[in-house]
Design a protein that fits this description.
Elements: E1 3-8, H1 13-16, H2 19-28, E2 31-38, H3 41-53, E3 57-61, H4 72-85, E4 89-98, H5 107-124, E5 128-133, H6 136-142, E6 151-153, H7 160-168, E7 172-175, H8 186-194, E8 200-202, H9 224-235, H10 239-254
Parallel strand pairs: 1-2, 2-3, 3-4, 4-5, 5-6, 6-7, 7-8
Helix pairs in contact: 3-4, 4-5
């Protein structure tokens, strides 16, 4: 199998110093490409450097909604420069809305930052990676602005109604190890069971959200196969077939 890990944070200290061995373990699990996400200006620069060093790694750069407060105008220019200069940067993001913590930037600033990322993705003709947490209602109001723009809602945790709004706009969703958790919301499993294979793919969100089999360990791309195995069982499909379908969806989305 040749599988794409569509969302990992290889620039994080838990993973950065072990990238060569992480790549090797990933290959043993069928992972032949990894998309590493740089979530602020400094991490974006580091992510770009990682992409240049390792042939199997591609990147996405943006400013996470949790970090969009100070110096946003200056930092989004840095993001544009990195995304323009490095051809291995295949997407913009992750961006979006996160209202989980009271200390997060105000809603108004997050919405402004989100819309600036949308403009940048359209300008550069790159897909957009979205993050929504405790923000689905407002997200649903803004999503129509993405019509005609490639986008994926990563770490999907919504219900059928939210998924339908995404799919109707031509968007994709991505599932993490959350689907393996005993306390995973039934609504998420329902979406996984019913979604057409061209509309979703898989990710680890490393170093976070290790699947249930590896809880307590630092998550890494090689664990993606466990997520796909679990999803195949839920969908009553063969692992190889689901891996092929989801990888094809990712390849078309990221154009890699």
């Amino acid at each position: 199998m040749k599988i794409i890990e569509t969302h990992a944070h290889l620039d994080f200290p838990q993973l950065f110093d072990r990238i060569p061995e992480i790549i090797d373990r990933g290959k043993c699990a069928g992972i032949n490409k990894i998309i590493s996400i740089g979530c602020d200006a400094l991490r974006a620069k580091k992510t770009s450097q990682i992409c240049k060093k390792f042939s199997s790694i591609f990147g996405a750069v943006g400013i996470h909604p949790n970090d969009c407060g100070d110096n946003f105008s200056e930092n989004i220019k840095k993001i544009e420069k990195i995304a323009t200069e490095n051809k291995k940067i295949v997407a913009i993001g992750e961006t979006g809305l996160d209202f989980f913590y009271s200390k997060n930037p105000p809603k108004k600033q997050q919405v402004l930052a989100f819309r600036e990322h949308i403009k940048l993705a359209k300008k550069l003709k790159k897909p957009l990676i979205l993050h929504f947490r405790n923000a689905e209602n407002l997200a649903a109001e803004i999503l129509p602005e993405l019509k005609g723009q490639k986008f994926v809602v990563h770490c999907f945790s919504g219900d059928q109604n939210f998924a339908k709004k995404i799919f109707n706009l031509g968007g994709k969703i991505s599932f993490t190890g959350i689907i393996t958790f005993p306390n995973c919301q039934p609504e998420v499993i329902e979406v996984l069971q019913s979604a057409s294979p061209e509309n979703f793919f898989f990710e680890t969100d490393s170093p976070f959200l290790a699947p249930q089999k590896f809880r307590g360990k630092i998550n890494e791309p090689s664990f993606l196969l466990e997520i796909i195995k679990f999803a195949a069982k839920i969908r009553n499909e063969k692992v190889e077939e689901l891996a092929i379908k989801s990888t094809k969806a990712a390849e078309l989305f990221f154009n890699i």
